[in-house]
């Protein structure tokens, strides 16, 4: 067999398998299907799949990778029961779907190769070659790449951006620290009480200030600070006041959590452990003897001024915002996110109302921008373009963004204008097709040094596949973001595979397992909208209980899980779709001090 014969054979195989997968994944769920759900109906795609598998050329068969067998010790509830049979997948609404069957074989335990594994790019701070695939280095051949190779190529296609933007804390969420976070103060900045109670000097019983007996002062509060010593209110020493006067040996004074400790204090007694006998004396409960230093947070316990709190490259989470504020910051130096223009191609697309007259709603305009923002991009605009070569060419040529993301027009149809546009602009294709389903026509091109175009296929789930395969690694590198740890989970049901391509399949997390969802065809969003992740299914498919790599989604943790706050006024969506964040954090609230209920003194006795 010649090389050409084999290539032709492969294409025929691809077509057959695409059709079989489409049948297995899409049409099985169409309302027109007969009401009775017999085994025969459920399996009607299997012969085509089996046929396709049977014809797989031996050297391309089962280059199974990117998986680890579940160790026998790691049981999960979904795998319990009789012999592993009868796994159910749920559709997005939670109804059981028939188990995929006959499509995958049990893995051999040892499996060192890693085709399905998400490739890692270097962490921020590691120098990257500028424009790695420039004129001097044409890079590896471009077509078509395996899924993991495509991700690695996208992650290595650019260097980390160096521009920084100083942002007020309120606008820094989701960005990345451009510089290490160093404490601007000691934390705590002064010795404070960890509890409401009394500051004590020396061993008890302790003398209480006469005019500050608890009973007297809960009735008619006067002006704070009125009675007593400097820094005291009539309730004793409260948080937020000036330095209190020294506490003489043998004395006690009421003190609130977070208030400054008066000089001379040796310990704090919690209010529930002490008794004010009403005659001017305070006694500790015998069950709670006072330990030296108890319930005092000493200055600098958490950090000293200048201490290195977090490294550059740390994503700014709500917790980082809190730490930055506590340690004295009003604003943070952040890495400028890569600027992205989104171009939505397709004359058939409507921007409002129900599909009509052969036209459908644009599902990608409202989805891609927010998703990119969750991946750290600064989305300049989402524009819808007419399906003409000139419109596409002009929009790409005029864009000043670091990354142009197009949707649709990647295939070879009469109005697929992405490839011709790239040729016209002299762009260099880095990835032209990926061995992944859905989404195989996705592409990545270098428009100019430091400027790239990601071409997402028009089928909506194929576009998501392109986002996670090409856009995510590219944006991660540009934005100097750390790669997320790979997450592996046992599959709660078998999944049909493509014989030679990786599949990305929406899954829901259920009891520690990844449950494949229905409605996972390339044109469908119903599965992904209900999903917690995208399972990476290696060529050949996977059995129930096989461990699969699972890609995080912006709303399910892992990379891209922290949405970037759109700077007010700077993010426009010229196509008029809402640019709302799909996973916005709630407004920062207050949090209690460390009331952990553990009666252990904070400072050693
Ligand atoms: N001869 C071939 N045809 C196709 C192939 C192929 O290999 N050979 N691959 C198929 C696959 S797989 C995909 S994926 C698509 C990719 O096509 P394009 O990137 O050129 O996208 P379009 O043709 O513009 O659209 C495809 C499909 O998606 C719908 N679409 C497009 N944009 C949107 C949007 N914003 N919102 C909702 N739906 C959208 C469009 O109406 C089409 O139905 O090519 C196949 N063909
Ligand atoms: O299978 Mo296409 O690649 O629909 O995305």
Automatic annotation (TrEMBL):
Biased composition (Polar residues): 571-580
Domain of life of the organism encoding this protein: Bacteria
EC number: 2.10.1.1
Compositional bias ranges of the Basic and acidic residues kind: 52-72
Pathway the protein contributes to: Cofactor biosynthesis; molybdopterin biosynthesis
SMART domains per UniProt: MoCF_biosynth
Region (Disordered): 1-147, 554-605
InterPro entries, sorted: MoaB/Mog-like_dom_sf, MoaB/Mog_dom, MoeA-like, MoeA_C_domain_IV, MoeA_C_domain_IV_sf, MoeA_linker/N, MoeA_linker/N_sf
Any matching Pfam family: MoCF_biosynth
Family indicated by similarity: Belongs to the MoeA family.
Function: Catalyzes the insertion of molybdate into adenylated molybdopterin with the concomitant release of AMP.
Entries under PANTHER family matching the protein: GEPHYRIN, MOLYBDOPTERIN BIOSYNTHESIS PROTEIN
Protein name from the UniProt record: Molybdopterin molybdenumtransferase
């Amino acid at each position: 067999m010649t090389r050409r014969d084999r290539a032709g054979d492969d294409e025929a195989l691809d077509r057959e398998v695409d059709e079989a997968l489409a049948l297995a994944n899409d049409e099985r769920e169409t309302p027109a299907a007969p009401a009775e759900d017999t085994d025969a109906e459920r399996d009607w795609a299997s012969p085509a799949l089996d046929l396709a598998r049977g014809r797989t050329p031996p050297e391309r068969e089962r280059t199974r990778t990117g998986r680890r067998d579940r160790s026998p010790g790691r049981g999960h509830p979904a795998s319990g029961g009789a012999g592993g049979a009868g796994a159910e997948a749920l559709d997005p609404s939670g109804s059981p779907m028939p188990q995929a069957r006959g499509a995958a074989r049990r893995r051999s335990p040892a499996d060192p190769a890693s085709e399905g594994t998400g490739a890692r790019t270097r962490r921020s701070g590691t120098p990257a070659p500028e424009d790695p695939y420039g004129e001097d280095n044409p890079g590896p051949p471009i077509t078509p790449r395996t899924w993991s190779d495509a991700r690695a190529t996208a992650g290595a296609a650019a260097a980390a951006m160096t521009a920084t933007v100083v942002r007020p804390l309120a606008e820094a969420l989701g960005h990345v620290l451009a510089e290490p976070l160093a404490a601007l103060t000691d934390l705590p900045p002064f010795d404070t009480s960890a509890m409401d109670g009394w500051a004590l000097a020396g061993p008890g019983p302790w003398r209480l200030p006469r005019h500050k007996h608890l009973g007297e002062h809960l009735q008619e509060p006067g002006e704070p600070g009125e009675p007593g010593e400097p820094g005291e209110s009539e309730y004793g020493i409260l948080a937020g006041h000036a330095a209190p006067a020294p506490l003489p040996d043998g004395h006690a004074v009421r003190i609130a959590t977070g208030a400054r400790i008066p000089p001379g204090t040796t310990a704090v007694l919690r209010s529930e452990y002490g008794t004010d006998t009403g005659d001017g004396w305070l006694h500790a409960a015998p069950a709670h003897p006072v330990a030296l230093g108890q319930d005092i947070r000493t200055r600098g316990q958490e950090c000293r001024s200048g201490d290195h709190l977090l490294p550059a490259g740390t994503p700014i989470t709500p917790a980082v915002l809190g730490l930055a504020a506590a340690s004295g910051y009003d604003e943070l130096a952040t890495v400028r996110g890569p600027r992205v223009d989104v171009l939505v191609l397709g004359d058939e697309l409507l921007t409002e109302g129900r599909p009509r007259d052969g036209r459908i709603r644009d599902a990608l305009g409202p989805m891609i921008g927010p998703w990119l923002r969750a991946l750290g991009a600064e989305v300049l605009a989402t524009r819808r373009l007419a399906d003409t070569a000139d419109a596409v060419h002009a929009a790409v040529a005029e864009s000043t963004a670091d990354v142009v993301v197009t949707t649709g027009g990647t295939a070879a149809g009469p109005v697929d204008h992405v490839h011709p546009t790239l040729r016209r602009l002299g762009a260099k294709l880095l990835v032209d097709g990926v061995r992944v389903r859905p989404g195989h026509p996705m592409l990545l091109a270098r428009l100019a040094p430091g400027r790239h175009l990601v071409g997402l296929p028009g089928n909506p789930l194929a576009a998501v596949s392109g986002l996670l395969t090409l856009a995510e690694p590219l944006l991660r590198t540009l934005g100097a973001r750390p790669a997320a740890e790979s997450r592996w989970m046992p599959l709660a049901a078998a999944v049909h595979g493509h014989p030679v391509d990786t599949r990305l399949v929406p899954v829901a997390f259920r009891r520690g397992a990844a449950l494949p969802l229905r409605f996972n065809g390339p044109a469908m969003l119903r599965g992904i909208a209900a999903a917690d992740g995208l399972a990476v299914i290696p060529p050949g498919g996977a059995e129930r209980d096989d461990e699969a790599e699972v890609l995080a989604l912006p709303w399910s943790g892992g990379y891209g899980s922290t949405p970037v706050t759109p700077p007010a006024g700077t993010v426009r969506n010229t196509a008029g779709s809402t640019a709302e964040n799909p996973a916005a954090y709630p407004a920062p609230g207050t949090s209690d001090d460390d009331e952990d209920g553990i009666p252990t003194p904070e400072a050693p006795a």
